[in-house]
């Protein structure tokens, strides 16, 4: 296993003063901004953001594939396109739900709405990541993509593995411009778009709504399976399980197509039938190796930790960036496969009933001779390049009740050594972001709070909005409460909340023992921290009827200040 190197000779200084593994810095060159003319009538823009924007010209216009993170990003791509052709865009296609935020720029250019093709699950996935899990999801993005790292100095971002940056700084203020799919696909369709035949295959990748698009007339395949790095089975930001067995099926489909040109959602295009075939076989075999050997280790009775230390990629994987650890690392993928196949428990007795983390840290530090001894051992391990052991020791110190500023600084220093020595952008960005948070140079405290946004809530149906409150219920404050409250909205359908058994359940409000009469827009404003229920009732814009005391007690059980009496 490698993941990172402790040899300081591999760490170099980047153009903005970054401390970075030499190979990671070299990787930035292949992610540089370039508008590739892949084939006649086929272009793809790399380096405009995290994803590519691809354009394919047909007899009836141009198909735009993926629109990036924002209106400004897609507008920049259209500017590049217009240096090559003035053919109008006829349709938009989404390869998956990640890069669908700049479509309004296309509509602005055409002056009209266009058909938008994509998988039927795109809308569901967009809603999922902006709902109950939004704070954790957003925090994961910040950590993985280094969104709070400085623009200059040792900790500055070098690249994000699949692109130079999550968002190009020139694209601020990053105006949202998503437009929903109008022609949904499931996979297996054959369409004629802009006069071109398009064969669609459902190809789950880092999203279960990913598609592979085959243009048989030109031999072009556009897809989200083959990345400019070893595929990220595990995303350090936190994601659903990406099953390698499913991935392999999708990659094999591409190999069977024998494309002349391979264009991805990320990274430079690849041309040549044999070149593509050879490299894709190596790419898929690296993924299969990780799954096969993880399962082999599980069958031998090894724990996930043991398997992660045992399974390695062959040295030849470093010869092609497609199989290099420029995004995530193999040992993390192994752990994810083990958990995905069998669940979190791997027969390690220490994980059966572990101590609470702070108590465990205190006991470990005490057992090793106390804070001074552990601190000295951690510093000695760091000085010797034994960074795994230094990381564990420094984490005990920082997690314990007696954690001191010097312990936090020590842990931050070890994380920096790991981040600087890793070829994987995810590891570098995560370690440096966490180091700065621990030492206090960058505060991420806001990302550990769940704050609802009024505008997002207002776009949801009332019952779906109230359903999101379930993850904001404090079970201690809800102890003994069994109350059903109806929300009679003046501008939306009625909904309800039933607080019972330490949970909150969204209902239609029928049979409730109290009723809150309020405009839906006013409620979403209160939930979003822009007002309070007390004030709304006092101003006469809301009324509470029925068992008001029970209703107020139920609302006070939520981590939403505006619902608490006296707020």
Task: Give an account of the 3D structure.
There is one protein chain. This protein is of the alpha+beta class. The chain has 3 domains: 31-323, Metallo-beta-lactamase, Chain A (4-Layer Sandwich); 357-447, Serine Threonine Protein Phosphatase 5, Tetratricopeptide repeat, CATH 1.25.40.880; 454-563, Nonspecific Lipid-transfer Protein, Chain A. It has 19 helices and 20 strands. It has helices spanning 22-30, 71-81, 103-110, 122-129, 134-145, 244-257, 273-299, 304-310, 330-342, 357-367, 371-383, 387-399, 405-420, 425-439, 454-458, 462-467, 520-527, 533-538, 548-555, and strands at residues 11-13, 19-21, 34-39, 42-46, 53-58, 61-65, 89-93, 116-119, 183-185, 190-193, 196-202, 211-215, 220-223, 261-264, 270-271, 483-489, 495-500, 503-507, 514-518, 542-546. It has a 7-stranded mixed sheet with strand order 3-4-5-6-7-8-9, with helices on one face. It has a 6-stranded mixed sheet with strand order 10-11-12-13-14-15, with helices on one face. Strand 12 (211-215) and strand 13 form a beta hairpin. Helix 2 crosses helix 3 (103-110), helix 5 (134-145) crosses helix 14 (425-439) and helix 6 packs antiparallel against helix 7. It starts with 10 loop residues before the first strand and ends in a 12-residue tail after the last helix.
């Amino acid at each position: 296993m490698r993941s990172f190197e402790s040899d300081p000779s591999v760490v170099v200084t980047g153009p903005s003063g970054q401390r970075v593994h030499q190979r990671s810095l070299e990787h930035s060159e292949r992610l540089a901004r370039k508008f590739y003319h892949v084939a006649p009538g086929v272009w793809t823009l790399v380096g405009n953001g995290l994803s590519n924007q691809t354009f394919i010209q047909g007899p009836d216009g141009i198909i735009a594939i993926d629109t990036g993170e924002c209106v400004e990003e897609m507008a920049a791509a259209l500017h590049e396109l217009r240096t090559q052709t003035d053919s109008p865009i006829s349709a938009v296609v989404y390869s998956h739900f990640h890069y669908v935020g700049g479509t309004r720029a296309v509509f602005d250019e055409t002056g009209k709405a266009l058909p938008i093709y994509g998988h039927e699950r795109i809308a569901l996935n967009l809603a999922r990541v902006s709902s109950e899990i939004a704070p954790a999801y957003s925090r994961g993005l910040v950590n993985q993509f280094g969104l709070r790292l400085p623009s200059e100095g040792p900790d500055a971002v070098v690249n994000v593995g699949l692109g130079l940056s999550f968002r190009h700084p020139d694209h601020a203020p990053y105006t949202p411009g998503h437009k929903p799919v109008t022609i949904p696909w499931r996979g297996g369709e054959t369409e004629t778009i802009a006069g071109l035949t398009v064969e669609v295959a459902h190809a789950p990748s880092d999203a279960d709504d990913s598609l592979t698009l085959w243009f048989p007339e030109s031999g072009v395949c556009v897809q989200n399976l083959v990345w400019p790095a070893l595929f990220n089975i595990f995303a350090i930001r936190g994601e659903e399980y990406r099953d390698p067995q499913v991935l392999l099926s999708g990659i094999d489909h591409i190999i069977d197509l024998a494309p002349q040109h391979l264009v991805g959602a990320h990274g430079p295009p690849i041309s040549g039938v044999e070149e593509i075939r050879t490299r894709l076989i190596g790419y898929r075999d690296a993924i299969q190796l990780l799954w096969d050997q993880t399962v082999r280790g599980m069958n031998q009775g090894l724990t996930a930790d043991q398997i992660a230390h045992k399974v390695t990629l062959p040295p030849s994987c470093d010869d092609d960036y497609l199989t290099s650890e420029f995004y995530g690392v193999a040992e993390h993928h192994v752990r994810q496969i083990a958990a995905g196949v069998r669940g979190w428990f791997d027969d390690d007795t220490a994980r059966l009933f572990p101590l609470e983390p702070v108590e465990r840290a205190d006991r470990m530090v005490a057992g090793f001779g106390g804070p001074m001894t552990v601190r000295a051992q951690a510093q000695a391990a760091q000085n010797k390049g034994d960074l795994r052991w230094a990381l564990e020791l420094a984490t005990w110190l920082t997690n314990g009740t007696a954690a001191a500023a010097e312990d936090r600084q020590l842990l931050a220093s070890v994380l920096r050594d790991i981040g600087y020595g890793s070829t994987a952008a995810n590891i570098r960005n995560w370690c440096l972001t966490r180091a700065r948070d621990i030492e206090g140079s960058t505060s991420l405290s806001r990302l550990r709070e769940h704050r609802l946004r009024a505008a997002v809530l207002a776009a949801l149906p009332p019952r779906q909005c109230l359903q999101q409150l379930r993850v904001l219920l404090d079970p201690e404050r809800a102890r003994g409460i069994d109350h059903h409250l109806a929300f009679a909205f003046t501008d939306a359908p009625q909904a309800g909340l039933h607080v019972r058994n330490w949970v909150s359940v969204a209902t239609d409000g029928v049979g409730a023992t109290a009723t809150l009469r309020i405009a839906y827009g006013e409620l979403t404003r209160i939930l979003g921290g822009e007002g309070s229920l007390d004030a709304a009732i006092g101003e006469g814009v809301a009324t509470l009827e029925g068992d008001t005391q029970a209703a107020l007690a139920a609302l006070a059980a939520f981590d939403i200040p505006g619902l608490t009496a006296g707020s």
